[in-house]
């Protein structure tokens, strides 16, 4: 991999072992759909995996597994629009796995959202075929994509004929994740193909149970005649290109995709055929595509030097491909692995906690749409709470199309080959993440209308769930929340316990207290007519606010050995011989799988997969966190927090890409010299595939967005609260100069730059009021059209 400058991401040479990783990182998309960076002449096998995914296009199937009927909902691998293969007449199709490759490189043009590939195939007798392709998934028109292929022959003595076959392939399955292959992955049915007009073919199908209709049309253009020869489940087009040395022959393929979930259409197939027919040629599409990308980059301006800057631009590129302004028109959540693969079945977890803080300050309309996704599923969350005997809203750990709990109840340990119970549905802290995002979005955007309506309703119903989950302990004199699983995920039960769940997870309880406090604040500040309507809508009784106030001050936070306990009883667990396990296994990120394969259980040990208690230092500034603990009756001084950070740092295996991000953020805020090591791990998580093969199944969207937010909020100490921008920059020698722009409460393009102890803030001209900026030692007001330069004090 090379990155010559921040505008490209390039791979040299053909290496089959790296193809899955490259295909994920070379995915191109537009927020509506995305296609993996597989070579168009390659089919799904152990090396390659073509995949095209439309946002929130799910299907549910039941499989026989370990003697049980197991139901799963998956993000569907749609018909592939990419296939375009070629060969000399009467010879084998040329692919990099079956032919001699003389040269090969792929270049992802981040600035223009364009994937370029060059491959030279040996044809024997000193002859060669050079193949150059340009691929885009259109950022201006989200239903279009295009592929240009240029063939150039070298060292021919006469003329050769090259057969070219282009197709739309409906015979695809979900088979991109090896551990899921025992599950039924045949999501498409009723596949039909046909010809619309000369040069344009179509394919239609539907998903088996969700009955989403899919229409796709492809328009092929070339100087040579094109013929159709449809096969079962494949719409096929053929042409023959005469090749002579030095003459380039070009074939353009333009496709349109629609589904029955799209607004303002009647029939997805007819919509696709019409759109493909009306689309301009490749050059015209490329021009408008580049313009759309230019506008995105302008809104998400980021100036970070060196390798870190190059990686951050790649991360930003993939965030924008998954969650673009087109997302604002859709009913979608934040897929944990982007639209880049099938890991986690395309489900929505809590990753929006790491994604929305970045989007809030650049694309607030996208944040609002993602919060609408949660509000549309609020009734389902209330039903989930009732099913557990509680009031309020209980959002699922994994969700998909309709908001029900999609967390699997069995998971495979590939080390032992055993299917094991999965209790991660007890991670009830998703609701707190949603409440946090509601609050952060409204603070950054100033969207009082959302806060007073949908936002307030979600906050109050989530708060009600936490108040109803809390039980009073007479001996302790505090409220407790039993039977949950925290963000750590390793610990699902106490050792030898018959039932899953842990009591008083510190992160869960502190976040519950924060939610209750924010809900009470919203209730107090709502306009009276809206307050009355909301109280009536959710049937809030007179006693509830007082109970919420009490619970928000009396939730139990356990401590041991002078540090915050991850949960009640954590201090009683056994210590793990970390050095011995590192020596034995080298990579112990998935320590839980290692111990289970040995016949042991990670539940017995003080060992965490990822940050749990330390997540509190990620979400809240030191001052805010100290205030939360004071409200709960605890003094959290700097020394206690430092001991807590050190304690868990020594007991975490970093089995998640989010772990390095959180630790880097927390250590940077503590002004620790080792912060950059974890920041680098967060930056390299996907490009180096640090989790050992997982990136090939889809990128880690939360970690990518989180690294952007590290530069945007973490290092500058940027907060949006109380109607002001709060800044408390931390010096990081490895990143001493950087800049970015934000959108804040209607101000577009506020530029911030930090260099060598100086902060520069530029507010673009407008008729809006000035920006209030709060620093630890002073407050300033910056008028629109002004640039303010401030010398920072240590």
Helix content: 25-40%
| Structural class computed from helices and strand pairing | alpha+beta
Q: Quick one: biggest sheet? A: 9 strands, antiparallel
Mean pLDDT: 95
How do the strands line up in the largest sheet? 1-8-9-10-11-18-15-14-13
Distance from N terminus to C terminus (CA atoms, Å) equals 39 Å
Radius of gyration: 27 Å
Strand coverage percent: 25-35%
Distinct helical segment count: 20
Label the overall shape.
globular
Low-confidence stretches: 1-5
Number of strands: 33
List keywords for this structure.
794 residues; alpha+beta; 5-stranded antiparallel β-sheet; 20 helices; 31% helix
Protein architecture, described:
By secondary structure, this protein is α+β, with helices and mostly antiparallel strands. The protein is 31% helix and 25% strand. The strands form 9 sheets. Strands 1-8-9-10-11-18-15-14-13 form a 9-stranded antiparallel beta sheet, with helices on one face. A 5-stranded antiparallel beta sheet has the order 19-28-29-30-33, sandwiched between helices. Helix 6 packs across helix 9 and helix 18 runs parallel beside helix 20. The longest helix has 22 residues, at 448-469. The relative contact order is 0.09. The model is unreliable at 1-5 (pLDDT under 50).
């Amino acid at each position: 991999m090379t990155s010559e400058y921040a505008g490209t991401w390039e791979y040299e040479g053909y290496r089959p072992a790296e193809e899955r990783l490259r295909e994920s990182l070379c995915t191109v998309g537009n927020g509506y759909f995305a296609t993996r960076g597989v070579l168009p002449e390659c089919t799904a096998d152990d090396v390659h995996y073509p995949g095209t995914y439309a946002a929130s296009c799910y299907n549910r199937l039941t499989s026989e597994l370990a003697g049980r009927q197991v139901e799963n909902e998956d993000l569907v691998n749609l018909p592939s629009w990419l296939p375009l293969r070629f060969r000399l007449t009467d010879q084998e199709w040329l692919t990099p796995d079956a032919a001699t490759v003389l040269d090969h490189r792929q270049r992802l043009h981040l600035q223009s959202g364009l994937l370029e590939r060059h491959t030279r195939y040996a044809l024997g007798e000193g002859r060669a075929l050079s193949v150059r392709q340009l691929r885009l998934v259109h950022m201006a028109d989200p239903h279009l994509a295009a592929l240009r292929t240029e063939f150039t022959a070298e060292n021919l003595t006469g003329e050769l004929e090259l057969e070219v076959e282009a197709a739309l392939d409906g015979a695809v399955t979900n088979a991109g994740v090896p551990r899921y292959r025992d599950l039924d992955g045949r999501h498409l049915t009723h596949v039909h193909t046909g010809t619309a007009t000369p040069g344009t073919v179509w394919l239609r199908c539907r998903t088996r149970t969700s009955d989403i209709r899919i229409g796709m049309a492809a328009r092929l253009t070339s100087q040579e005649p094109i013929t159709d020869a449809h096969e079962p489940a494949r719409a096929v087009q053929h042409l023959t290109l005469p090749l002579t040395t030095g003459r380039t022959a070009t074939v353009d393929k333009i496709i349109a995709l629609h589904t029955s979930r799209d607004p303002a259409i009647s029939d997805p197939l007819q919509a696709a055929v019409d759109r493909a027919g009306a689309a301009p040629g490749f050059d015209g599409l490329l021009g408008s595509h580049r313009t759309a990308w230019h506008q995105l980059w302008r809104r998400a301006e980021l100036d970070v030097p060196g390798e870190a800057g190059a990686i951050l631009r790649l991360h930003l590129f993939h965030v924008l491909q998954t969650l673009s302004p087109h997302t604002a028109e859709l009913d979608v959540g934040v897929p944990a692995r982007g639209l880049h693969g099938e890991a986690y079945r395309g489900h929505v977890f809590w990753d929006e906690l790491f994604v929305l803080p970045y989007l809030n300050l650049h694309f607030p309309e996208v944040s609002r749409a993602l919060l609408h996704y949660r509000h549309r599923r609020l009734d389902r969350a209330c039903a989930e709470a009732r099913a557990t005997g509680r009031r309020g809203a209980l959002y699922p750990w994994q969700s998909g199309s309709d908001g029900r709990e999609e967390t699997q109840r069995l998971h495979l340990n590939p080390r032992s080959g055993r299917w094991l119970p999965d209790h991660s549905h007890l991670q009830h802290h998703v609701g707190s993440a949603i409440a946090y995002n509601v609050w952060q979005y409204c603070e950054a955007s100033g969207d009082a209308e959302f806060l007073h309506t949908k936002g307030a309703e979600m906050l109050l119903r989530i708060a009600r769930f936490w108040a109803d989950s809390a039980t009073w302990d007479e001996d302790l004199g505090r409220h407790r929340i039993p039977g949950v699983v925290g963000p750590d995920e390793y610990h699902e039960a106490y050792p030898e316990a018959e039932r899953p769940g842990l009591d008083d997870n510190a992160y869960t309880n502190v976040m519950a207290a924060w939610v209750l406090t924010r809900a009470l604040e919203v209730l107090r500040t709502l306009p009276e007519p809206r307050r009355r309507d909301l109280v009536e809508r959710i049937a809030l009784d007179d006693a509830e606010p007082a109970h919420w106030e009490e619970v928000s001050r009396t939730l139990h936070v356990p401590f041991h050995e002078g540090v915050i306990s991850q949960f009640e009883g954590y201090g009683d667990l056994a210590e793990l011989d970390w050095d011995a396990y590192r020596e034995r296994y080298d990579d112990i990120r998935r320590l839980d799988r290692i111990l289970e394969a040995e016949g042991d259980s990670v539940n017995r040990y003080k060992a965490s997969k990822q940050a749990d208690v330390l997540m509190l230092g990620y979400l809240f500034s030191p001052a805010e966190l100290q205030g939360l603990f004071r409200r709960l009756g605890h003094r959290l001084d700097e020394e206690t927090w430092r001991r807590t950070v050190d304690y868990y740092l020594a007991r975490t295996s970093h089995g998640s890409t989010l772990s390095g991000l959180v630790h880097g953020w927390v250590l940077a805020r503590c002004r620790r010299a080792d912060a950059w090591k974890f920041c680098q791990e967060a930056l390299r998580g996907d490009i180096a595939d640090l989790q050992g093969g997982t990136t090939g199944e889809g990128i880690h969207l939360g970690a990518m967005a989180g690294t952007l937010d590290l530069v945007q909020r973490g290092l500058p100490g940027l907060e949006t609260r109380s109607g002001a921008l709060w800044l408390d920059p931390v010096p990081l020698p490895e990143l001493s100069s950087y800049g970015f722009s934000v959108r804040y409460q209607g101000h577009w393009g506020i530029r911030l730059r930090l260099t060598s102890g100086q902060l520069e803030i530029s507010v673009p001209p407008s008729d809006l009021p000035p920006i209030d900026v709060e620093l630890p030692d002073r407050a300033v007001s910056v008028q629109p059209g002004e640039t303010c330069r401030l010398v920072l004090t240590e």
